């Protein structure tokens, strides 16, 4: 860990201003990912702006019948919220399938969106990684990549986004609200929030420098059967090999988003028209354009099989 | 005390304290955080500086240059020690790779430097500022690619052969010939390798987390080129080892060098978790070939087990065929162990070396053979039981109740409910299967000493350099002393893990429990003799009970017998030829039920049951803890543990606990453990045997066999991850 300076922000605007003002500044909330990365000097912020005191820890109804989740709402609290459990079950289930109880107690909504990949080469500073050190190459391509991306990859990066929560938010069409130093706010559809790696895998979101997430809004409930199926190597405390967030309406139509497939939560809206035609047709549409390695090619049949199981569960 | 004839009746047979499921005597200290581990010795070594190891960024090659200017100039940094300023160092016989690289690098993350600073954070930050230029050279990192270059190891028993295997196998009406692979595994004990080191007047004090105190002194002596008398090793509490701490590692050597560099001030150093995997040792991967020929009635006529593994030059093999030499009958047999040179980190012992991976292959092969024979897998094992060493039929087993374990285990588990046809039992989406395997682990005994004293209050104090690595040594040693001296547990103090105490067996190879308590037995017998002599009692009819020494109608309290000066005695147990005259091993049977998700291929263990025969169970509670811990480790070996080698860079890629999976609580179901009533008089005066590793042996194969029974997919490449399952599942 490199030495850093630290301040506690008291307003969102002040936090954003401090971030713009101070070179090498980063926001810190739960710190469950950032501190680990700092210890390994994968992240080396010179200044930390603690946003825990901003009061953004409420879940409130929105005018259109949805929910506004403060950026600092802890994963445990969000998962346990009665309104979330009732109307956004897929989100609650995704949250509790992630990390461990201790981490969920600390981790925040905004921080969860911003967590970084678990690609093992990203985590080893002696190895090339375009995400960590742009231009150094990608050790994962041609290396150990069993759990890496098959969709939307580039020659620069095949990392996945590790979040479960974000996959559920993607299927719910959530919106990320932000504020910047000039007090301008933005509402970024979750689909546009995370980026594909392209030639710049080090740039992971559409946030501008200093832009602070203040909340995530969930549109009004859409009903349906909510399922989050996470497939993993052990029963708890493991990142998804793949995961499926599903909201399925009577008749078999609905929405599907996937974790473990790409650099962002993966959703192909056009493929959802295939849902009434079954898992095979749906998976084939979702996975169009997949690029696999010998180690991660299993994810394609696994997606189809898991979609099938999700459809069965929705019927039951 | 020499132990070269079978034990007869002795005071341990009273079983007033021994054999009771007593709580750990150190339990409260550990659960309240007041047991001080090696990194926490502020009491003994205050004002410690902190060391942080810089590991090599390459797997093989040479250090071209080291620039430590920035590191030395960093805030709080007190010293940077590399091969250039460490002074002359030796390589301990127990080490394959050197603990400090330079100029040659032998493996990835081999220590290149220690940065010593006022705080941990400063040391870690300083370590990142050390600039090392390497010249990388090509290495060999791929076992499969190196298999054909493997050679016969120079030591051990790499080849065994009895009868005519080839001829008998060719003639056998039912044959199996399969290849199995097991991956590299990391010990990943909870406490990483940790040391606090300090020098005074040329003498080194080392508080380190270590399983074998006597070896630790030797390793440090050979590495630092220092007389053994100048080294004091203390390791009273150890947060797990699994073989990874049988020898001192770079934490101890680099902490000692770091302390020396700053004038002897204490330096504490713990390996960071990512360093545990590549800086230290691991269980080597194996490729194994099993050939078994049987008659139609199931009798094995030919059995062959070959194994290939790799290690650094000068290293040793994983002796996977160990168990196959002794587990089943069969007149024609052979084993072969081959070793390839690999430039990965040092391969070495991990819990039940040999058997743990050998049985993953052998016991899966037995399941396959049972299927070919259309025979129940339990029955196949019973038919092939042997009461003599199959390689040397004149040599009997000291005790062998494999059949009893198989029967008791099957009964407790409800094996008779198993459907032998795979893929027939469902629970919703889950395909349910049952599998079983035999458990086998050698019973090794090691010379072990202790000193036992009584003071004027009648308190018995045991001192031995034996370690408690989470196993319960404190407790069973206290039980032994209490039983022998006829006092309650609260009148016994046990002092462990200090090289100033008599040398013990240490903890490893499941020899520690039996051997160290036998050493305490020997010392207690010597002390009893002294007490009897002092009181003028006839030592043959003297009885120690209820805090008193009795002979005929005379009775004297122990405190009175000890007097103001107290009494003490020291002795050790030395084992004679009984392990040669008799085959000595521990046995068991594992039964497992798994569910395989018919959609995703995810495998989850639903219940586990095991029956074990391991001589006298000194403490059923701590023994059970050993077994369920080992079963848990077996779930890891079967389903998830896999240290992935990147063959381009030559290192284990998934070097943290987020990516190297060991079972989480949610992976572990109800575990049922049953101990057979057994005494083994040929093993030791305790009539006990090892129990620390037996529970791991075979359990992974039982899981693999259950997976096959559940879904009809045989996977011969461990671990059984879902990608291997769904490819073959309907």
From TrEMBL, chain A:
Coiled coil: none
Gene3D superfamilies, alphabetized: 3.30.465.10, CO dehydrogenase flavoprotein, C-terminal domain, Uridine Diphospho-n-acetylenolpyruvylglucosamine Reductase, domain 2
Bilayer-spanning residue ranges: none
Listed InterPro entries: CO_DH_flav_C, CO_DH_flav_C_dom_sf, Diverse_Substr_Oxidored, FAD-bd_PCMH, FAD-bd_PCMH-like_sf, FAD-bd_PCMH_sub1, FAD-bd_PCMH_sub2, Mopterin_DH_FAD-bd
Listed GO MF terms: FAD binding; oxidoreductase activity
Pfam families in the record: FAD_binding_5
Superkingdom of this protein's organism: Bacteria
Keywords: FAD, Flavoprotein
Domain FAD-binding PCMH-type, chain residue ranges per copy: 1-223
SUPFAM superfamilies the record matches: CO dehydrogenase flavoprotein C-terminal domain-like, FAD-binding/transporter-associated domain-like
PANTHER family: ALDEHYDE OXIDOREDUCTASE FAD-BINDING SUBUNIT PAOB, XANTHINE DEHYDROGENASE SUBUNIT C-RELATED
The protein's name: Xanthine dehydrogenase YagS FAD-binding subunit
Species the sequence originates in: Sphingomonas faeni
UniProtKB/TrEMBL annotation, chain B:
Residues in Aldehyde oxidase/xanthine dehydrogenase a/b hammerhead domain copies: 32-138
Pfam families: Ald_Xan_dh_C, MoCoBD_1, MoCoBD_2
Record InterPro entries: Ald_Oxase/Xan_DH_a/b, Ald_Oxase/Xan_DH_a/b_sf, Ald_Oxase/xanthine_DH-like, AldOxase/xan_DH_MoCoBD1, AldOxase/xan_DH_MoCoBD2, AldOxase/xan_DH_Mopterin-bd_sf, PaoC-like
GO molecular function terms listed in the Swiss-Prot or TrEMBL record: iron ion binding; oxidoreductase activity
PANTHER family attached to this UniProt entry: ALDEHYDE OXIDOREDUCTASE MOLYBDENUM-BINDING SUBUNIT PAOC, XANTHINE DEHYDROGENASE
The protein's name: Xanthine dehydrogenase YagR molybdenum-binding subunit
Source organism of the structure: Sphingomonas faeni
């Amino acid at each position: 860990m490199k030495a850093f300076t630290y301040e506690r922000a008291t307003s969102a605007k002040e936090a954003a201003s401090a971030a713009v003002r101070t070179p090498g500044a980063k926001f810190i909330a739960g710190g469950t990912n950032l501190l680990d990365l700092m210890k390994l000097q994968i992240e080396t912020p010179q200044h930390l702006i603690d946003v825990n005191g901003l009061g953004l820890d409420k879940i409130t109804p929105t005018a259109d019948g949805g929910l506004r989740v403060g950026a600092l709402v802890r994963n445990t609290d969000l998962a346990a919220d009665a309104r979330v459990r009732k109307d956004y079950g897929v989100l609650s289930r995704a949250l509790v399938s992630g990390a461990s109880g201790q981490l969920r107690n600390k981790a925040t909504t905004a921080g969860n969106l911003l967590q970084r990949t678990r690609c093992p080469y990203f985590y080893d500073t002696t190895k090339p990684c375009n995400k960590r050190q742009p231009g150094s190459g990608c050790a994962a391509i041609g290396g150990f990549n069993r759990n890496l991306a098959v969709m939307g990859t580039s020659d620069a990066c095949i990392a996945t986004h590790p979040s479960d929560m974000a996959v559920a938010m993607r299927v719910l069409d959530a919106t990320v609200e932000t504020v910047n130093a000039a007090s301008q706010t933005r509402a970024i559809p979750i689909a546009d929030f995370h980026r594909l790696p392209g030639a710049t895998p080090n740039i992971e979101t559409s946030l501008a420098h200093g832009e602070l997430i203040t909340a995530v809004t969930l549109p009004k409930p859409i009903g349906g059967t909510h399922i989050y199926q996470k497939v993993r190597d052990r029963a708890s405390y493991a990142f998804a090999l793949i995961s499926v967030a599903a909201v399925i309406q009577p008749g078999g139509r609905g929405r599907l988003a996937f974790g473990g497939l790409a650099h962002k939560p993966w959703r192909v809206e056009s493929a959802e028209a295939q849902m009434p035609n079954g898992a095979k047709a749906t998976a084939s549409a979702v996975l169009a354009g997949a690029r696999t390695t010998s180690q991660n090619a299993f994810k394609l049949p696994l997606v189809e099989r898991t979609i099938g199981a999700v459809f069965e569960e929705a019927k039951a | 005390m020499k132990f070269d004839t079978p034990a007869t009746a002795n005071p341990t047979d009273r079983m007033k304290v021994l054999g009771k499921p007593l709580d750990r005597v150190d339990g409260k200290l550990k659960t309240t955080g007041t047991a001080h581990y090696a990194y926490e010795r502020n009491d003994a070594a205050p004002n410690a500086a902190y060391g942080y190891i810089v590991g090599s960024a390459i797997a093989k090659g040479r250090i071209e240059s080291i620039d430590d200017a920035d590191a030395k100039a960093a805030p709080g940094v007190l010293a940077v020690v590399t091969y250039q300023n460490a002074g002359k160092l030796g390589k301990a016989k127990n080490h394959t790779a050197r603990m400090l690289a330079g100029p040659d690098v032998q493996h990835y993350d081999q220590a290149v430097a220690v940065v010593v600073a006022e705080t941990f954070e400063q040391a870690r930050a300083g370590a990142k500022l050390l600039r090392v230029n390497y010249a990388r050279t090509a290495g060999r990192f791929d076992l499969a690619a190196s298999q054909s270059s493997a050679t016969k190891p120079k030591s051990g028993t790499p080849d065994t052969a009895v009868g005519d295997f080839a001829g008998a196998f060719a003639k056998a009406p039912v044959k199996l010939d399969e290849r199995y692979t097991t991956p590299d595994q990391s010990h990943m004990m909870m406490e990483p390798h940790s040391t606090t080191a300090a020098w005074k007047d040329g003498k080194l004090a080392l508080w380190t987390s270590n399983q074998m105190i006597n070896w630790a002194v030797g390793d440090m002596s050979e590495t630092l080129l220092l007389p053994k008398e100048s080294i004091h090793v203390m390791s009273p509490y150890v947060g797990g080892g699994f073989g990874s701490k049988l020898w001192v590692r770079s934490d101890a050597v680099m902490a000692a060098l770091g302390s020396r560099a700053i004038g002897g001030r204490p330096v504490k150093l713990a390996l960071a978790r990512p360093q545990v995997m590549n800086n230290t040792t691991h269980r080597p991967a194996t490729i194994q070939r099993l050939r078994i020929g049987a008659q139609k009635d199931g009798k094995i006529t030919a059995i062959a087990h070959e194994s290939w593994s790799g290690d650094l030059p000068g290293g040793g093999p994983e002796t996977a065929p160990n168990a196959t030499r002794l587990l089943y009958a069969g007149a024609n047999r052979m084993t072969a162990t081959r070793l390839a040179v690999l430039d990965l980190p040092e391969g070495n012992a991990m819990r039940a070396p040999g058997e743990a991976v050998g049985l993953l292959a052998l016991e899966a092969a037995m399941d396959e053979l049972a299927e070919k024979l259309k025979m129940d897998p339990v029955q196949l094992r019973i038919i092939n039981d042997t009461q003599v060493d199959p390689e040397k039929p004149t040599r009997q087993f000291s005790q062998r109740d494999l059949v009893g374990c198989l029967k008791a285990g099957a009964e407790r588990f409800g094996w008779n409910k198993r459907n032998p046809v795979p893929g027939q039992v469902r629970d919703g989406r889950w395909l349910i299967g049952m599998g079983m395997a035999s458990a086998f682990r050698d019973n090794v005994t090691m010379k072990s000493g202790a000193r036992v004293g009584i003071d004027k209050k009648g308190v018995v104090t045991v001192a031995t350099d034996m370690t408690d690595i989470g196993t319960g040594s404190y407790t069973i040693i206290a039980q032994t002393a209490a039983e022998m001296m006829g006092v309650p547990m609260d009148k016994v103090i046990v002092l462990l893990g200090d090289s100033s105490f008599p040398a013990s067996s240490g903890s490893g190879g499941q020899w520690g429990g039996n051997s160290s308590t036998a050493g305490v037995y020997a010392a207690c017998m010597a002390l009893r003799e002294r007490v009897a002599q002092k009181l003028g009692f006839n030592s043959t009819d003297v009885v120690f009970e209820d805090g008193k020494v009795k002979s005929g109608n005379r009775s004297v309290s122990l405190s009175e017998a000890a007097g103001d000066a107290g009494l003490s005695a020291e002795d050790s147990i030395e084992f004679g030829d009984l392990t040669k005259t008799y085959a000595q091993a521990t046995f068991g049977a594992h039964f497992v039920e798994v569910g395989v998700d018919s959609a995703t291929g995810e495998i989850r263990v639903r219940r586990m049951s095991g029956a074990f025969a391991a001589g006298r169970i000194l403490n059923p509670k701590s023994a059970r803890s050993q077994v369920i811990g080992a079963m848990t480790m077996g779930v890891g070996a079967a389903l998830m543990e896999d240290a992935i080698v990147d063959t381009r860079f030559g290192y284990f890629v998934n070097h943290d606990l987020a990516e190297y999976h060991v079972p989480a609580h949610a992976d572990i179901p109800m575990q049922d453990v049953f101990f057979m009533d057994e005494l083994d008089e040929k093993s030791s005066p305790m009539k006990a045997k090892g129990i620390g590793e037996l529970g791991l042996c075979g359990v992974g194969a039982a899981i693999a066999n259950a997976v096959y029974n559940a879904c009809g997919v045989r996977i011969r490449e461990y671990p059984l991850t879902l990608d291997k399952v769904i490819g073959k599942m309907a």
